[in-house]
């Protein structure tokens, strides 16, 4: 799992493992997914991608 550095610095140290994200064009939101079982976990409401999570094609 990625670690957060100092509070307020706005970035993450390392990538988040076992997670990926994909863009849903129908709802125009980014959706976070567990790569182990493919289950959708969460979606962003502001339209920006999750920080530190790799993007699927």
Question: Can you characterise this structure?
Answer:
By secondary structure, the chain is an all-beta fold. Helix content is 0%, strand content 39%. The protein contains no helices and six strands. It has strands at 3-4, 12-13, 19-24, 29-34, 40-43, 54-55. A four-stranded mixed sheet has the order 5-4-3-6, with no helix packed on it. A two-stranded antiparallel sheet has the order 1-2. It is globular and about 35 Å long. The model has no long low-confidence stretch (mean pLDDT 87).
Share of residues in helices: under 10%
The number of helical segments is 0
Radius of gyration: 12 Å
Low-confidence stretches: none
Structural domain tally: 1
Q: Shape from CA axes?
A: globular
Mean pLDDT: 87
> How many beta strands in the DSSP annotation?
6
Largest sheet geometry: 4 strands, mixed
Gap from first CA to last CA: 22 Å
Q: What structural class do the secondary elements suggest?
A: mainly beta
Q: Within the largest sheet, what's the order of strands?
A: 5-4-3-6
H and E order? EEEEEE
Strand content: 35-45%
Key terms:
globular, 4-stranded mixed β-sheet, mainly beta, two-stranded antiparallel sheet, 57 residues
Chain-wise SSE layout:
Elements: E1 3-4, E2 12-13, E3 19-24, E4 29-34, E5 40-43, E6 54-55
Brief summary:
The chain is mostly beta strands. 0% of the residues lie in helices and 39% in strands.
């Amino acid at each position: 799992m990625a670690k957060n550095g100092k509070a307020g610095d706005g970035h993450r140290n390392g990538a988040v493992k076992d997670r990926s994200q994909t863009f849903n064009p129908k709802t125009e939101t980014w959706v976070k997914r567990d790569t182990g079982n493919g289950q959708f976990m969460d979606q962003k409401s502001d339209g920006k991608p999750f920080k530190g999570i790799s993007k699927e094609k």
